[in-house]
Amino acid sequence: MYPIIFSYKFINIGTYGLMLGLAFYLAFLLTERELKLRGKDPELAYKLLLVIIPSAIVGAKIFHIFENWSEFMRDPKAMIFSGAGLSVYGGFILAFLLTMILIKKNRENILEIFDLTAPAMALGYGIGRIGCHVSGDGCYGIPTSSFLGTAYPNGIVPTSAAVYPAPLFESFVSLLFFAFLMKLRKREMPTGKIFFIYLILNGTARFLIEFIRLNPKELFGLTQAQIVAVLFILTGALGWFMVERRPHKAA
Fold first, then answer.
1. Is residue 195 part of a domain?
2. Does a structural domain hold residue 250?
3. CA-based diameter of the chain, in Å?
4. Has residue 185 been placed in a domain?
5. How far is CA 80 from CA 16, 42, 69, in A?
6. Whole-angstrom Cα distance, residue 21 to residue 137?
7. What is the pLDDT along the chain (251 residues), one digit of tens a residue?
8. N or C: which end of the chain has fewer CB within 10 A?
9. Is pTM, for the whole model, over 0.85?
10. DSSP labels for 62-127?
11. d(CA 214, CA 217)
12. 3-state class (DSSP) for residue 165
């Protein structure tokens, strides 16, 4: 793996940061395009980007700290300033909360905006996970002797053992979700349904992938990410049920 692709004195350009930047940028371009197609102000895409980038990174770091509290207590400074250790769901949750406030301030329908950004979420997630793989940031799967096994001897969190490349699995599935949601958005359906479908898809994929991840079990034999994934699935199912029952305007 190649965690650093350019280094000069105190300047380091890492593959994870590069892929994360690309993920945000492509998600932004897609969101801007979708806003234009729906006759909405594309400036909202810029505002969303300015809120999502810091909130996603801060939320991901906070969530990772809680997920690895004992390690954090041993060396708080190292974990806070480490290039590794970003929990995607923490980023999702904080970004969702702050973007809801932003959308409301712009007098837009929250579910309508979430609908048109759902494909961008899937695209950004898929590209970001490629960054996890190429940088070897530690979100690996369990050791395996199968042909799928991949070692990360030069990663940010190195391992010479062959493990499941969990980030690649998530990336592949998320990009499939992106293609599916792009087709789905052409159909007439209740406002909010596309977003709730994405929550179900994302939650289901993450719940299953956690069975081959190295994360510790927290409750009922489930990892913290699986618990959040279940909440995503339940929220998506409940939201889908509610928007189908009420009078609606098609997205």
1. yes
2. no
3. 61
4. yes
5. 16, 35, 12
6. 16
7. 677 777 777 677 788 888 989 999 999 999 999 999 999 999 999 999 999 988 888 887 787 777 666 676 777 766 666 555 557 777 888 889 999 999 999 999 999 999 999 999 999 999 999 988 988 888 889 999 999 999 998 888 888 999 999 999 999 999 999 999 999 998 889 999 999 999 999 999 999 999 998 877 888 889 888 998 999 999 999 999 999 887 655 44
8. N
9. yes
10. HHHHHHTHHHHHH-HHHHHH-SS---HHHHHHHHHHHHHHHHHHTT--HHHHHHHHHHHHHHHHHH
11. 9
12. coil
What whole-number distance in Å separates Cα of residue 23 and Cα of residue 128?
6
Taken as a whole, the chain contains a residue count of 251
**Count of domains for the chain:** 1
Q: Considering the domain boundaries, does residue 251 fall inside one? A: no
At position 54, the amino acid (one-letter code) is P
Structural domain of residue 185, as residue ranges? 4-245
